[in-house]
Amino acid sequence: MGVSVKSKLPERRVNGAGIQKALEMNLFSIAAYEQPLKWVAVVLGFCSTVCVVQGWQLAAMLLGLPFCLIWVYCGWLRTEPQLKYLNIMFSALYAYGIVRYFLLPELP
Hints:
Blueprint: H1 5-8, H2 16-29, H3 34-54, H4 57-77, H5 81-103
């Protein structure tokens, strides 16, 4: 009278479509915060611009990176490829600049 455990449990398959759907649901669950994130991005962009004008290179990069990451997210949310890829490129450049700032000694 052996009952298989497998017969009692529903079979679940993990496929690419299921993972994609779960990822999209997670991404869109944050969509309610899109407008506040855009306001945070405006403040970060303004502060980053002030840092550029003042000559504070590190501060400008540290404020510019989250600015770009917010717009990468907003580009993914609205499927705007130009916005998305442009900000991915700028995020990579900011990350490179921040790493370079800390790894290379300042030249006299």
